[in-house]
């Protein structure tokens, strides 16, 4: 790209390029050079908008966390409608898209990124998965209050189980989703007790 050409929303262009590199080549291939080549911008553009590459990666993670916030609102709005298992299955499938799975791998892979994220966020857990767990726990709490799961359901523990199982189902699949019904079977198994006991 010629010097001096104005780039509209360069930050968004760089973040989108990073997601494409992650999807195509994986976390190990995500470098500042790979991102600027993918975005078709000069090398200096990234450093004009971010302090360093880890600052850029932290913004990439925060962008994903913001999307989880939108997903959380939609999931909570679904409380009391459809089935609990169906709502959770849809939420996990949406949550663990290939980019999110790659971002979780990136967080685990890069110690400095994880440390930077923890300075301004939760001091434990894996960013993205921590927020996803909170999303599921909030939804389950709403369903408990609506009487659709047992009143003594441990929403936090159920959410941890669902996020852990969901991540294992989607991780390492090279963008290929689990077989049809696999997510629903896991969700149904994890919540079976609290769904059954609501009727007792």
Q: Can you offer a commentary on this structure?
A:
There is one protein chain. The chain is an all-alpha fold and 200 residues long. It folds into 2 domains: 49 residues, Homeodomain-like (Arc Repressor Mutant, subunit A, Orthogonal Bundle), CATH 1.10.10.60; 145 residues, Orthogonal Bundle (Tetracycline Repressor, domain 2). The protein is 69% helix and 0% strand. The longest helix is centred in the N-terminal third of the chain and has 25 residues. The N terminus is likely disordered.
Quick recap of the structure?
The chain is an all-alpha fold and about 200 residues long. The protein contains ten helices and no strands.
Q: Which secondary structure elements does this structure contain, and how are they paired or packed?
A:
Elements: H1 10-25, H2 32-39, H3 43-49, H4 53-77, H5 84-95, H6 98-109, H7 111-119, H8 129-145, H9 155-170, H10 182-197
């Amino acid at each position: 790209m010629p010097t001096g050409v104005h780039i509209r929303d360069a930050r968004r262009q760089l973040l989108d390029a990073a997601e494409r590199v992650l999807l195509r080549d994986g976390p190990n291939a995500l470098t500042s050079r790979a991102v600027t080549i993918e975005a078709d911008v000069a090398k200096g553009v990234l450093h004009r908008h971010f302090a360093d590459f880890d600052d850029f990666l932290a913004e990439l993670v925060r962008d994903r966390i913001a999307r989880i916030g939108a997903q959380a609102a939609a999931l909570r709005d679904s409380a009391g409608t459809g089935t609990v298992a169906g709502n959770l299955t849809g939420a996990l499938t949406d949550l663990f898209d290939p980019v999110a799975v790659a971002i979780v791998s990136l967080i685990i892979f890069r110690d400095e990124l994880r440390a930077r994220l923890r300075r301004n966020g939760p001091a434990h857990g894996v960013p993205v998965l921590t927020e996803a767990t909170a999303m599921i726990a909030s939804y389950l709490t709403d369903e408990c209050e609506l009487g659709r799961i047992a009143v003594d359901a441990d929403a936090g523990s159920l959410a941890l189980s669902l996020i852990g199982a969901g991540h294992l189902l989607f991780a390492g699949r090279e963008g290929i989703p689990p077989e049809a019904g696999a997510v629903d079977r896991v969700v149904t198994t994890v919540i079976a007790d609290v769904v059954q006991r609501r009727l007792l």
